[in-house]
Amino acid sequence: MKKFYSLIMLLLLCVSAAQAKFTYWGYGDKTISSQNGAATAGKAAIYIPAELAQCYVGKTVTGVRVGLAANVQSMSVFISTDLNGAPIATKEADIAVAGLNSAVKFDSPYTITGEGFYIGYEYKGMENALGCSSLTNVSGNGNWTNFGDGWVNNGVSSKALNIYARIEGSTLPVDLSLVDVKDIAVKEDTPFKITGRLLNQSASKVYAYRIGYSIDGGAEEFADFESTINERSEGSFEILHNGVYGKGKHSVKVRLVTVDGEADAYDGNNSATLALLSTNISAVKRVLMEEFTGINCGWCPRGIVSIDQCVEQYPDNFIAIAKHNYYQETPEALKSPTYDYDLTGTWPYCTVDRIFTFDPVPANSLANVRAALELGTSVALDAVATFVPENPNRVNVSATAQFTAADNEANYRFAFAVVEDGITGYKQNNAYAGNKNGEMGGFESKGSSASVTLNHVARSGYGVKEGIENSIPQSVNEYNPINYSTVLDLPSTVINPDNIKVVAFIINKKKGSIENAVQVKVTEQGETAIADVNATQTPDIAVVGGAVVAEGFDGKLCVYTIDGKQIANENLSRGVYVVRGTGAEKTFVKKIVVM
Fold this sequence. Notes:
By secondary structure, this protein is mainly beta.
């Protein structure tokens, strides 16, 4: 009889074990690298907040799984509700090596009560072994460390650590984490892909899911996927969008809506927001001429004439910055101390892309600009600049670089300059007056002190000498655009903010040259969506029955609000709209007012 009961108990234990399910829950993926600044010994932890723990009440944490960047001499795992207090449970690992280790199981499991708790490990080794994943610690709960000076939450700028709770139970909730939703930079009105990954932190397979997304707070759109994601595994998705009209920054919210037709168990890891920079970016080479000049320099009219002729000859591929620095005779209002790049020479002198340096006689300037253009470029560049709302003395600028080839030892940096056009009230010394020194673009017909309108005047520089450190990573490739945003403070010397432009350029530190440049007008926030909308000839536009029609045009009509959101071409209310027509032989953009 005793043998019979023993057999029954053994069978029950086997059934119980067979019914128990498990999963690993954490903030990181399975990619492992060492964390900068970590030590050869220390502690690491992640925090499971109460709102997440509530999903697992009654389940047990039976162990902790750890990913290490190097072998260690010893490692123990722990669970605690207070990092500065005594742990609830600890367990020494038999072995711990580089990579994703098997879970170290506690002697007594911890039953989840719904209260927040920490899991982590303590290690000692010969190398920096602290493992961090490829995922950013967006929750702020995924990277706690202690290297002897107390616990530190490394925050959302860090990477999530490779620490995972092994959770067991007869039933476990279905929980997917939406991760790795990347920022996008794309030419305006060009299709792009929203991409991301889903970590299945469940003990069961997932067969279908729905992703929702909205742009700039507009109507949410949905994409349904029938794709199997195995338990404790991951899947990826991509959503093709037709494109956004309106050059500028847009915000895209992406969220996991349903899993197999049901709501996900934990909403806290189901959404992400990405930045969409809609640009005119293309691999267009633009040269940058930096001219060093002064109104008291009699020979400097040839620099003015050179720039005018280059603008006329290469209107889409030429940018100029005129730095007024003629000895000590330059008026303070024309100086730009922060534009600290300089050359030695007699005025006027200039450089094109910091490759060709010469006296800007018009023939020299045109020849050197042409030579620089023939060199081409390895990087496409675009930028957007807008005034900070309610602060006209500050400018938000975002630059995007797209390299045409991979380079793992790149040494490039962004730089920015503010220039102003249309400056009046000054007179230019003129050595060409009376045709004494030959013709010079009309200055030979002006007096020895000629009234001028100064353009391209350098007002301020930001990293113009060496570039902004760490603005472009060391490793670049042809697939991932590089975005850099900052705020520029305008100097008090700016006369008319309506006449300022931002020049963004990329310095090649290896060569000491400028790889590419772009110049953009500074606009009010939201204005970029309708820039140049009336620049092309358009058919007659009318609004009939609340919809836009174009007489004699057989292409596609799209309607946008002035901030770039596409809307249905129906039931249009009063307001200002942008109409874009795309046909086989003609494309146009026009701003309209519906009364």
